[in-house]
C-alpha cells in the first residue's frame, strides 16, 4: 500500500459499513494490517537519534499521528513508556521516553502541526509530562462519537471507515518491559499507520453532516481542559467498599489504602499488584484483632506477605482511632446537585425537571445521530435542571448552559428545546394547582352539594 491510498470508499459505502457495525458484523472485505508499510523503524533511544527524528518530523508535511503506550496495570501512575508518531515524509517514528525523557524539542518542531490522536484525553497528560503539548488537535474517537458510530474504538473505526483490520492483542501489555519485544513494536507502529487517513475520512464525514464546527469546538475543549483536581477521599473508590458497613471498617479501608499507595509509589508498582482491593475489603469486614492478617485469603500471596508488618500497623492505626475521627460509611456529597437517583425524594419538582430536560436532549441527539452525552454532558444537564433560570427563557437557558461548561454549539442546539420543556412543565404544574381535585370538588363542579351543606 502506498502513502495516502486507503479503501475508504464512498459516503454510501461508509454508511453501509456503519450499518454493519451497528449490527455487530465485521467488515466483509477488511484487510488485516500486519506490517508497517515502510517496515518497522528502529526504536529511538539516544539523544542524536532523537535530534534526527525531531528534525525529520518537523520537516514533514500535514498532520502528525500520535499515540502513547502506558503500563497502568503494572506501574504506578500513567506515564508513557513508548511514543509513536507518523507524518508524511519521515514516516513512523518510535521513541523510548525512558531513554529520551525530554520531548521539548519535538514540541517546538511540531508547534504548527495538527496532532491526530485517538481518545486524546487519555494520552495528552502523559505526553505533557514529557514536554509535548499539541496546539491543534483532531481526536478520531471524539469525531466518531459526533458522527454517531456505535463503536468508536480505534480498531472498530479503522475497520468500518477504512476497511483495515488492526490486531489489538498487546493493548494491555507491560510497556515498561525492556527491551521491548519486536512484535510489540510492530503492533505499536501499526496504531499510527493509518491514523491520518482515518482523520481525513472522518473530517469528510463531519463536513457532510455539517458538524465540522462542532468537532472544532470539542477538540479545542479537550486541549484546554485542566487536569482533574485530586479526589478528596480517593480510598473510597476501593472496589467492593459497598460491602463495608461500619465506620471502623471504613477506617481500616482508609489506612490500608493509604499504606498501599505509599508502598506502590515507592516501588513504582500498580497499587493492585501490591495488595488487591479485595484484600483490603476482607480486612475491613473481618476487623482482625490479635490474629494474623495473613490468615485472610487476600493476604496470602507473596506480594502481600512481603509487607505484612505495614498492613498490621495500618490496621492497628484504624483500631486505635477515636470514634469521632472515624470516616462515615457514605461518601460525602459532591459539590453541586445531589446524585440523580436521590432527586425524587429530596425535590420531586426538580426530578420532573430533570426528566423533562433529559427527554428534550435525547430527542435532539436522536435527530442529529449522536449520543446524548456528547450533545450535552450529563453534569451540565443536572446542574441546569437542579437550579434553572427564572424565567427559563431560551436566552437565559443558553447562558446557564455556557456557565456550566457547555460548548457554544451545544447551547445553540439545546437552549430553545430545553426552554420549551421547562416552560411546558411549569404550565402543567400551575394547571394542576388550580384545578379542583377530589370527590368534593367533582361534586361541586357537577352542581351537587354535600348533605347538610345548605
Task: Give a brief rundown of this model.
With 454 residues, the protein is of the alpha/beta class. The protein is 50% helix and 9% strand. The chain contains 21 helices and 8 strands.
CATH-wise, what's the superfamily of the largest domain? Ribonuclease H-like superfamily/Ribonuclease H
Give the C-alpha Rg.
28 Å
Number of helices: 21
CATH level 1 name of the largest domain? Alpha Beta
Largest sheet: 6 strands, mixed
N-to-C SSE string, H for helix and E for strand: HEEHEEEHEHEHHEHHHHHHHHHHHHHHH
Helix/strand-derived category reads alpha/beta
Oligomer state equals single chain
Question: Whole-number average pLDDT?
Answer: 90
Overall body shape: flat
How is the CATH topology of the largest domain named?
A: Nucleotidyltransferase, domain 5
Strand order of the largest sheet: 2-5-4-3-6-7
Low-confidence stretches: 1-7, 440-454
| CA distance, first residue to last residue | 97 Å
The appropriate CATH architecture of the largest domain is: 2-Layer Sandwich
- Beta strand count: 8
